[in-house]
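User: Show me sequence and structure for the first protein, then do the same for the second.

Assistant: Starting with the first protein.
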Amino acid sequence: MNSVQGLLAASVISIQNSCFIYPACQNCFSRLVLHSRRFNCLKCGCTGEAKDASYRYRLSLKIADTSDLFDITVFGSCLDPFFGVTAENLQRYIQDFNQLSGETNTESTARALVQAVETCFIGKRFIFGV
């Protein structure tokens, strides 16, 4: 699953999703279903306390090389250098910010994050391992 078949130099045209962090199963990396105090993995059946859920990056991009457009999704810790922190720490920072600022409209925080990610990625050229 992690073997690179080839490299693709391409520019990011757009960000395809607005949720870059998701609660991930530590066994199979699938998205966890969070309930008020518990989490559940629908793929492997793993369960636990919601406060112990780990988070992972998932960034879906539309990219273009010199002749084609592609939809590509980048997962995991390879995005840590771009965000400057792990997905788990970024999730914690967002939660702490919302709590400390008394922010009840978490949508404004999400919009600010999307705008920052768009500024950092759109129009930039990267080499993708595919």
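Switching to the second protein now.
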Amino acid sequence: VGCDRSKNLVDICGEKHFQAFVCDALSVPMRSGSCDACISIAVIHHFSTAERRLATIRELARLLRPGGRALIYVWAMEQEYKNQKSKYLKEKNGSKGKEKEINTGTTQRLLTDQMPGSSNQDSAYSDQLINDLKDEGCDARPVGADSRLPVHTNRTSFQSQDLLVPWHLKGGTKKKEESVGTVLVAGDSKESQELSPVFHRYYHVFCEGELEAVCRSLDCVRVQKSYYDQGNWCMILEKL
């Protein structure tokens, strides 16, 4: 059973005869302890406060039965780890610096659904978490209410933990082999930049130890495994 904040994505799942429903990861309408396993891939890094990120993991744990496990993936600040570049950085050469684009049509509404909010509290951090991360050597600086978030240059290393990643909507006709919702690599030319609408999506990229520290602050789960995988920090949790 799948769920997503975007109705358009859920509709695509329905068309493919998958079971999915619309919900918010902070409040999933399922019984506590009803799942053997939960998977959260590339979701939690879109929540803009430490409190929300913690609440999302707590909600994930609530769904699990005792002994059930959860797998979490979030984008890593360290796109070069142990002298190895992530696939994200490596693809820069193969795509000549091109950025991700998404087909128009239904997907245009999909992207609009996922636009970040502009609440002043959206860049707040838990003071305790900041102190913990500083102890770990992580540069977790809070962003003030009057600050502007930096816009990331795709296929480059991250310069800030809180940032906006540009997504270019692809205009024109769709190629036969392309399906709605497919993430594509498209040109970086001046013409394509002028023709393609750009959406900025909020990301909080996690530094080493940050996701694990959040998970260990919950007394309802234990960390089974913590690891790095191709530009992502990953965690396997077990419900106690």
